[in-house]
Amino acid sequence: MGMFDRMEKGIERAVNGAFAKAFRSEVQPVEIASALRREIDDRATVVARGRTLAPNTFVVELGAGDHQRLGEWEDTLGDELRDVVAEHAGNQEYSFVGPITVRFEEAPDLDTGLFRVRSTTTRGTRPAQPHPQQQALSRPQQQPQSQGYDNYGQPPAPQQPDHPSLVVDGRVYPITAAVTVIGRGTEADVIVDDIGVSRRHAEVRVEHGRLVAADLGSTNGTYVDGERINTAEVVDGSQIKIGRSTLVVRFGSW
Prior knowledge:
Layout: H1 3-16, H2 29-43, E1 45-48, E2 51-53, E3 57-62, H3 64-71, H4 74-92, E4 94-95, E5 101-106, E6 115-120, E7 148-149, E8 164-168, E9 171-174, E10 179-183, E11 190-191, E12 202-207, E13 210-215, E14 222-224, E15 227-229, E16 231-234, E17 239-242, E18 245-251
Parallel strand pairs: 2-4, 3-5, 10-11
Antiparallel strand pairs: 1-2, 3-6, 6-7, 8-9, 8-18, 10-12, 12-13, 13-16, 14-15, 14-17, 17-18
């Protein structure tokens, strides 16, 4: 029996049991399970040879009627859905940086039968807090958008990762614009006081919901996780080295 068959059998047992009284023409658990599998496939990112990182924290947004019906079974259904995510990730050889969590939230703008899935990559330990004198030398904030699914399970365009930032020398610089320039000059968004860094050394761009680091023709080059790059995708924990300085990419609370 394949993974998808086992997943549907597990959910089917719940639907044919106590859930059958609650779920009629509204959102079905199998629909949510399928959406979660698509979500981790869409958001999975190769971070190194042989390692692909996937999101591990999921929020399912539901209309009032569906949330009321599902809320009674949140713990049991959440366990089933976590198993679905874990099994699919195992078969696809995805990695997580923390435990898998699935929870439900009510969304007033959703009608019965519609739902959305949000996902983030959440470490098992709380990220370091910003330095008390941090300076956010970046442009006005753009809030990340939730990824949604209609009743046919079709997702929209990929979303921007939640709260990306760059950490250098104990300071946190939130990435709040489409392009963030890193360099030694005062015109840079993130200023690095390092003689080995060019005035406009590198930039981090938001492209189709992903973060991409790019060298800007610097003298000494830009390195991501030890490899010199022209452009390269970066994820939570990636290290961008310019001159003698290292910037760490972080997703999560600022």
